[in-house]
Amino acid sequence: MELKVLENPDLEVVASALKKAIMSKQLIVVLGECRVDYEGRAASRLEPGERLVIIKQDGAILVHRPTGYSPVNWQPPSPTIEVVYKPGIGLILHTLRDRPREYLTVVFTKILLLVVSRLRDVGEFTMYIDEKEMRDVLAKNPSLIEEGLRVLAVEKMVGGGYVDIYAVDGVGRHVLIELKRVTATREAVLQLYKYVESYRIEYGVVPRGILMAPAFSPTALETALKLGLECKHVDPKKLWELLKKGQRRKAALTDFQGRPPSNGSHQAGNI
Amino acid sequence: MELKVLENPDLEVVASALKKAIMSKQLIVVLGECRVDYEGRAASRLEPGERLVIIKQDGAILVHRPTGYSPVNWQPPSPTIEVVYKPGIGLILHTLRDRPREYLTVVFTKILLLVVSRLRDVGEFTMYIDEKEMRDVLAKNPSLIEEGLRVLAVEKMVGGGYVDIYAVDGVGRHVLIELKRVTATREAVLQLYKYVESYRIEYGVVPRGILMAPAFSPTALETALKLGLECKHVDPKKLWELLKKGQRRKAALTDFQGRPPSNGSHQAGNI
DNA sequence: CTATGCATGTCGATA
DNA sequence: TATCGACGTGCATAG
Fold first, then answer.
1. DSSP string computed for A170-226
2. Cα angle vertex B146, ends B140, B150, to 5°?
């Protein structure tokens, strides 16, 4: 891996190094004293201080202060990054993007460290469970929602949007299920209500509305009660375990395919 | 400013340097090959690759891939960070936080660069205009919303939430105004509708509902029309200019206080 | 401390 | 391309 490190470099030296690094789409890390101006959707100014500035290989720019999760200033991958050294003023980094039109200007007055590199990163990123997977697990195991439930569709178009699960319960009533992976707020209840109302208007039948979430805010519960909607607890962790088990089983099947099972009849009972 | 830079260091050396740096709350930047496991609200795995890992002075951790704005994995400022070197496995960085209970594990198999430093950053950060400021400017200049409007309150409690501006129009009708700094979606309309409904139930009067935003999505306009809510254009930039003018005037007053104004009567006309 | 709503939200999917 | 909804959203604030 290429790696260039300059400690306490001259601003003019950094300027030319930066231009080259940006041109060749390398990763740049700068520790230095700077001030930052931003204008676009909002507008901000950051007075001078020592910061960590990152220019990524796709042109994304992050200005980080020494604490906190989020960058104080940033620009998503932008095509045009300008570097200018002005004696007496400093090293100016200027970026511009359209849609939305926004600019970000970083003016370095002192550079403590410049790192230029190119990272090779093809490692896959997997999120084990998101709302979609929760939905699929529940759709495949409707008894987790309610005994006797029969799933008719996932992501059914109702009115303007899509309800997560569409089903019929044990006594034949239509059921619309909205799913949340985190604590459900009043917003989620209103979203479900919107579906229930749209469904009523469209089909002339009042369906049951079930909101499933690991927890509910008080206002969510209150609103659901008022609107005649049901709240049901669901444990994402449990679904995740189920999903993992399912994947492991699938993996196992793949692993063993073509090999005669040593005790196939015994295993079959569990599937 | 303290600054330690190690290129291609031994994992064991890095381990002790990291422990010391974390103990003394310094800023750490690592370029290296690693894999990452996360489990908490969700769960994820990141396969090996070269990444930029940052440990901030408050214990916040960011794992960045070579492209994109957002970190692929992270942990907000967490009190407990563990560093262990296991020969044959690698350098393990393990962090845990409660509320929510989440852990993040980074396993380095190769370190290309280690930077330890301490940034001094007391520069002030100013955001020129956010929704709150837009609201205040509009409340102080209600004619920008509608001629003859009289503002009764900002952030008035209605039902569960707070409506941005509460006013009475020229013919005495009550008005609820919801404000958006960006393009208003259907969600914003529903939020306003919630306020209007709550108000109707609470006071037995149907108020006007006005949604103000720089732009409206088609579904927002459609939904607003259906629900009898009004959409009004507002230009954040214009409000920002007004705000700046107000602040400049205020600044000017401060600057000149105690000094006899040279042309006070002329200025008064504009205030 | 929890609940609520904003954010330069960002990001992906979809029409 | 614009819109929509989810997010390990993070974050400040009000109660």
1. TTS-EEEEEE-SS-B-HHHHHHHHHHHHHHHHHHS---EEEEEES-B-HHHHHHHHH
2. 50
Domain ranges of chain A: 3-117, 131-254
The identity of residue A171, as a single letter, is V
**What pLDDT score was predicted for residue A264?**
33
Residues 6+ apart with CB under 8 A from B34: B48, B49, B51, B53, B63, B90, B106, B107, B108, B109
pLDDT digits (tens, 9 = 90+) for B135-193: 989 998 999 999 999 999 999 998 878 999 999 999 999 999 999 999 999 999 999 99
Residues 187-216 of A with CB under 7 A from strand D: 191
Q: CATH top-level class for A131-254?
A: alpha beta
Same fold? B3-117, B131-254: no
Residue reference for tokens 């359209």? A98
CA B268 – CA B271 distance, rounded (Å): 5
The CATH number that domain B3-117 falls under is 2.70.180.20
- As given in the structure block, the two tokens for residue A249 are 């089983």
Q: Are A73 and A38 in contact (CB under 8 A)?
A: yes
Taking C1' of C3 and every protein CA, the nearest residue is: A217
**What is the amino acid identity at position B63?**
V
Using 50, 70 and 90 to split pLDDT, how confident is the model at B264? Answer: very low
Alpha-carbon Rg for chain B in angstroms: 27
> What does the block give as tokens for A174?
């239509």
CA atom of B72 to C1′ atom of D8, Å: 11
Whether residues A68 and B45 touch (CB distance < 8 A) is answered with no
Tokens 């209840």 locate to: A189
Distance CA A53, CA A61 (A): 7
Taking all atoms of strand C, which protein residues have CB closer than 7 Å?
A 38, 40-42, 44, 73-76, 102, 104, 183, 185-187, 217-220; B 68-70, 99, 127, 130-132, 160-162, 178, 181-182, 191
CB contact under 8 A, B72 and A44: no
- Residue B150 is given by DSSP the state E
Distance between CA atoms of B163 and B154, rounded to whole angstroms?
A: 7
How far is the CA of B230 from the CAs of B93, B195, B210, B251, in angstroms? Answer: 54, 14, 5, 37
**Chain CA centroid to CA A143, Å:** 29
Residue-wise pLDDT tens digits, B189-242 = 999 999 999 999 989 999 999 999 989 999 999 999 999 999 999 988 788 777
Chain D footprint bases within 7 A of protein beta carbons:
1-11, 15
Of A50, A125, A186, the CB nearest to B46: A125
